[in-house]
Design brief:
alpha/beta, 7-stranded mixed beta sheet, 6-stranded mixed beta sheet, 14 helices, 15 strands
Amino acid sequence: MFAISVDVLLAGRVRAPWARMTLFPTIWALVWSVASHTFPLGRLLSWSPASSSHPYTWMLGYTGPAGIDWIVGAWAVLGSELAGRWLMGRESLDDLSSQSLIHHPDPDATYSETAETSTAPASRKFLPLGAFLFAFSLPSIFAELPRRPYDSSSTPLMVGCVLPTPTVGKHLSLDDYISTSATMTEAKVLLWPETAVMFNSPEERELAFEKIRKVPGPLIGVPFEEYVPDSDDTPDSPNRRTGSKRNGLALISSSQKPGDEIVQYYKRNLVPIAESFSMTPSVDPPTIYNLNLTHPKGITAPSWSPLPDHIRPIPITTSICFDFASPTAFSDLPSRPALILAPARTWDTAVSLAMWEQAKTRAAESGSMVLWCDGGAGGVSGIGGQGIGEIMQVGAGSWKRYVGVQWPFDERKTVYAAVGESEVLAFLVLLMGSGSVGSELLTRANNGNRILVSLGQAIMAAIPAVSSMLRRNRKEPPNLIDIEDEGERRPLLN
């Protein structure tokens, strides 16, 4: 309602047809951008469709969610025009549009000039916008297919989600996750769900990490919940302050030594009420960890990689569940990640589906893939991005699959990740303003042509009068044929 009210307020002040048509889409994009940074739920309640559910998904890497909001607003403008023509009739709508939409009358212009600019039907002014929206949907015809894992330009990478089946009346423990992970060692990357384990002290955390390091092979993403270290307090103290816990994720492998585990990330956006009163958010952005893959059996080291160590680095980053509702979740990354680890634990299938769409959207914006592992009772889990959008599991049940990672991997950031959301919004405002500037220039040029034509017509009309005046003021030479004498005419030679 706020966006519509602002559009109605400014409609009469915008004169250019293109600027008038794109006014509401620009306001719509600005409003939702502000809302995503202001409201606690981020973009979770946005009216714009999420990833892979519309033909404009390819734009996410260039414009981010603001571009999709603009597209939604533009379709709303076209839809309202069609609805208005159907409800009010063509003639009535054209009369209203010619007064309020097409051209705002200039008080210095004459009636004929104003009427001349308002006689064109309003529907014709919407043809460029309709053609623009149709053209931008055409790239969706060339659907992006998943990269083949076994290809000369791909690195095969097996990833998996560890979701043990719980026993009736028993909560999953650390040993359950470790034993399940030990049966999936052929995977290169494994991910546990959000808050899979709970630590009451740094010593307890280190003992758990030591047990996880005994699983040979894969890099394991271990989400955990722990108390914030405080030298003046202890985990069992009755005076521990509220919000003294935090939600983190560590990357652990058997090749690490004790103390070398990587605490990759701590959750930044907490779920309102459910987490905000009992946990402390982090302010540190995600980072990138390179998983170095050596050559598999049957492939020689030089043919596997020309790098000095003959390895293929796979850049990996992480985020946790509700952080994916923010459109700037990965704006601080220095380069493009190949894989995003995304542990989650939702309380309902509908919420899990909504967050799964947000995770795929963030992956499309950053040009990467996301491994979504939801440990909720009805949570969905899968991998999305780079042409993949499959839900592999609903509820409990571990799974793994191969994906193909580009080789050599292009670490350049996408346009949206490089320029940011504010620059995209500035471009949308400029796109609307260019219509006003262009229309104003054309109007001034047209007015200038009218002045020149009027001046030329005045000059041409003045030429006969000037000629007549010059003839009257000039002395006439005597007529050598006839001479007037006292009202009579006599031949000169008679």
